[in-house]
Design brief:
By secondary structure, this protein is mainly alpha-helical. It is about 50% helix and about 5% strand. It contains 6 helices and 2 strands, in the order H-H-H-E-E-H-H-H. Strands 1-2 form a two-stranded antiparallel ribbon. Strand 1 and strand 2 form a beta hairpin. The longest helix is centred in the last third of the chain and has 17 residues. It is elongated and about 60 Å long.
Length: about 140
């Protein structure tokens, strides 16, 4: 499994909004400048985040974007699932019912299921607030 640029940039954008949430609505240009990400690329990510109700939008002179809830109410897993679709390490785990004809006899399936669970458990345990704390304390986040 590899997280795409879209997923990484969405997470950086959401973290930027969390760090600067006291500034009110933040212009996309400001996020792009601080994160050194193309504004055009962020414009492609915003609709995904908006559709999932992760952002609030304000148009006009003091317009921009803000988080729709507090940073401790977002998980990294939630943000990545919005942009990546799912976080499956193998295609046979993409759907609730594994339709692989070999699933009942597959000796490797438990390994992939365990990896999938570990990925989801870890990413769902890290909140944006954890990342804000980590960035302001200069530490690393780990298991």
């Amino acid at each position: 499994m590899k997280i795409s640029t879209k997923g990484r940039y969405a997470l950086r954008m959401m973290l930027d909004l969390a760090i600067h949430r006291s500034d009110g609505y933040i212009a996309l240009k400001d996020i792009a400048d601080r994160q050194e990400i193309s504004k055009k690329y962020l414009e492609q990510i915003v609709p995904l985040l908006n559709k999932a109700d992760l952002l609030r939008t304000n148009r006009g002179y003091q317009g921009g974007y803000a988080l729709s809830r507090e940073p401790d109410k977002y998980t990294v897993g939630e943000i990545l699932r919005v942009t990546e679709g799912n976080l499956c390490p193998v295609s046979c785990l993409q759907y609730p019912v594994n339709e692989c004809p070999r699933a009942s006899e597959c000796a490797t399936l438990p390994v992939w299921e365990g990896l999938y669970k570990a990925i989801n458990d870890y990413l769902d345990s890290v909140t944006l607030q954890d990342m804000v704390n980590m960035s302001t304390e200069g530490g690393d986040y780990s298991i």
